[in-house]
Design a protein that fits this description.
With 330 residues, the protein is α/β, with parallel strands linked by helices. It has two domains: 164 residues, ph1033 like fold; 125 residues, Trna Endonuclease, Chain: A, domain 1, CATH 3.40.1350. It is built from twelve helices and 15 strands. Strand 3 and strand 4 form a beta hairpin. The longest helix has 23 residues. The protein starts with 5 loop residues before the first strand and ends with a helix. The model has no long low-confidence stretch (mean pLDDT 87).
């Protein structure tokens, strides 16, 4: 069982958690921008965006928010097809997996409007509608699930999604070698993280390690910002996005324990100073609970997309990309 395409889709339109109360009980996935009617029948993208702009952002001088809403809704309504899989991130280190089984429709009920979830699609929830632990996923899928965007493409991660589903289901189809590999990866990741915290490492070496990591996961450019010119961004990097390059500002924190939301504020200031809209906060520690909420708030209010990568994810990314890639770089 393998889909032709896959996506990541959050289930929190309008900031309301819809997964437990709408999506799972009704076997649907939902999206927001409910005030923008007639999107399903509109197949001209310019007119599509205009509907969202006039309905949802009439007072906005720029097209940043309407452009984001249009790209997200276009993906939901026109690019997700029957049989495609959708990864739905959840709290507590889990995610759900759904297979699209119906065409998009508009639920015009009062309850749907109240929760900003009028746009819907029928799905079949895989893994018997049970959550899948994120530690069954490889670093690439974990990274994609942490995006602050409402939705994201995941076709390049289909193998990782299938593998995570097989590990979670624990059926006879699961290759015992996969289970061995999972346990081995976990133990190796713990050893790598311990070395990052207490081995031959310091702040500058950790910065160079992150620079190498960014290149290993696809950055076409990753340059450490000299400290005299540091405005809140430690590394300026670029990632290819189709024919374009997306510029990303990265702040790096080397420490143990919790990384608090003050560093997200620092990065937000750095992104604005560098005229960037996408950033990563990469920490060798773990993030306090309110970090994710602040990241989502900054995205909603300012259009700043700040993704978080913690120490465990750094370690698994190193393992998944091969230790040899990193050994001579720090």
């Amino acid at each position: 069982m393998r889909p032709a395409n896959a996506f990541v889709l959050r289930q929190s339109p309008g900031g309301i958690r819809a997964l437990e109360v709408i999506s799972l009980p009704n076997n649907v996935i939902v999206n927001g921008w409910s005030d923008a009617r007639e999107l399903i029948s509109e197949k001209d993208y310019s007119k599509f965006r205009e509907i969202i702009s006039e309905s949802c952002y009439p007072g906005e001088k720029s097209l940043r928010k309407s452009g984001y809403g249009a790209s997200t809704m276009w993906r939901f309504l026109n690019e997700m097809r029957l049989g495609d899989w959708v990864v739905v991130p959840d709290r507590n280190g889990t995610f759900y997996l759904a297979e699209i089984s119906g065409e998009p429709f508009y639920d015009d009920t009062q309850e749907a409007h109240k929760t900003d979830s009028c746009y819907r699609r029928q799905v079949k929830w895989l893994n018997d509608k049970k959550p899948i632990r994120r530690d069954y996923a490889r670093s690439g899928l974990i990274s994609r699930m942490k995006t602050q965007q409402t939705s994201a493409y995941a076709q390049d991660l289909i193998d990782e999604i299938v593998e995570a589903l097989q590990l979670a289901s624990k059926t006879e189809e699961v290759n015992p070698e996969n289970l061995f590999e999972k346990e081995l990866r976990q133990k190796m990741s713990q050893a790598v993280l311990k070395e990052i915290h207490s081995g031959y490492m310091d702040e500058r070496r950790f910065e160079r390690l992150v620079q190498t990591l960014l290149r290993a996961i696809g950055a076409s450019r990753a340059e450490i910002v000299p400290r005299l010119h540091d405005k809140g961004v430690d590394i300026l990097t670029e990632f290819p996005l189709g024919p374009m390059q997306i510029r990303v500002g990265v702040q790096v924190k080397w420490h143990q324990g919790q990384t608090t939301k003050e560093y997200i504020d620092q990065l937000a200031g750095g992104l604005e100073a560098e005229n960037l809209t996408v950033g990563w906060l990469i920490s060798s520690g773990n993030f306090a609970e309110d970090c994710q909420a602040l990241s989502e708030k900054l995205f909603q209010e300012k259009g700043l997309q700040i993704n978080l990568m913690d120490g465990e994810q750094i370690a698994t990314t190193i393992i998944d990309n091969g230790l040899q890639t990193f050994l001579t770089k720090v």
